[in-house]
Amino acid sequence: MCYCDRRSCLLFDFSFLGDILMSHLLNLFHNQRWLVARGFLPESDPTTRFHSHMDISALDEIGRDLPSLLENGVLRQRVEKMEIPPCPEYDRRIHLDLMRLYYIRLAFLASGYIHQLGAEPVKVLPKKIAIPLVNICRRLNRPPILSYDGYALYNWKRINPLRPVALGNIETIQNFVFAYDEHWFILVHIEIEAIGARILRAIKQFLEKKEDLVANLKEIADAVLDMKRVLERIPEKMSSATYDRTFRQYIKPFDGIVYEGCFDDQPQTFRGETGAQSTIMPLLDAFMKIPHAETGLTQHLLDMHNYMPSKHREILAAAEALPNFRASAPRDAYNPVLEAMAQFREVHYTWAKEYIAAHTTDPRGTGGTPYMLWLKQLIDETRSAVL
């Protein structure tokens, strides 16, 4: 039995972590200082227009008109008359925000073209979209399809720039449909990402030994529960019927699509937009060292890393490389984090059941996976990891 002072007894011993592994993750935090304030949201509020960049400013107009063009079934005809200039070779450090906006406009346009509701299916993305989309995605080091980063992380603006990034003070930049349901779906994820900054801040303090393990794990658990409360708000302004019949159709995978003028015109398959491409929960899985059985799910989770921004992948890889601290963690601090994660995943499972499974017999989600089976596996394995 341990009779030492409780606080000193629960201080985490970093001696076994290894200076190199710990220093690498801390260096990433120090070099990307916005992570502890912004989480995995961009380092500054996204650019909403191209402004004086007249050569590509027409994309703002097509972005504004996209819901009308899709609703009226004339997007493909409009594309035939369009000329899309390539994104200029900006200095990446200064103009990354403009490159992201260019990617958003082109990726939405591509998904709208391929998945146009009420139109005949197509398997060819015209070169006037395909070539600039592939080029900008190569520069951003990501697959050439709309993913979670373009649909959510970069796709918002604050109504009042002096107020927090939270529901009621944020709006989307680009949408597929007019229904506010889609705005709400995206914006709920934005507030969840904003809350996720608290998790990154706690992990950084944890590694710097500024506070003891218990305090940081408690902050992580509280943040995840706050994320869960935001996710629970989905039904407030989002109908399951609207989701299933309208904008969900536009975030599905590209399956055997020819990008005209690219990839030697060989058909390509890319996963659709999905919350599994967010880095928050994978980071927690890695940091908390939650074991997952070797199944199709584990390969799927690894594949989702390819759809994350490259800097997010760096943070995730560094967290995965840290040694396992489970054996040294006090149960009363470690287990509440896992329970909070399981509860968050249960809400996700519930919405997947009500918003998707209730409307279709297709077992595949927008990421192309058996989502109900795998979401349940994630919940079970999270709870099974308790100490």
Order of helices and strands: HHHHHHEHHEEHHHEEHHHHH
Instruction: Indicate the multimeric state.
Output: single chain
Report the β-strand fraction as a percent range. Answer: under 5%
Parts with pLDDT < 50 across at least 5 consecutive residues: 1-17
Q: Any idea what the shape is?
A: globular
Helix content: 40-55%
In words, what does this structure look like?
- The chain has about 375 residues and is mainly alpha-helical.
- Helices cover about 55% and strands about 5% of the residues.
- The chain has helices at about 5-10, 20-30, 35-40, 60-70, 75-80, 90-115, 125-140, 150-155, 180-210, 215-230, 240-245, 280-290, 295-305, 310-320, 330-355, 370-385; strands at about 125, 155-160, 170, 255-260, 270.
- A three-stranded mixed sheet has the order 1-4-5, covered by helices on one side.
- Strand 4 (about 255-260) and strand 5 (about 270) form a beta hairpin.
- Helix 2 packs antiparallel against helix 14 (about 310-320).
- The model is unreliable at about 1-15 (pLDDT under 50).
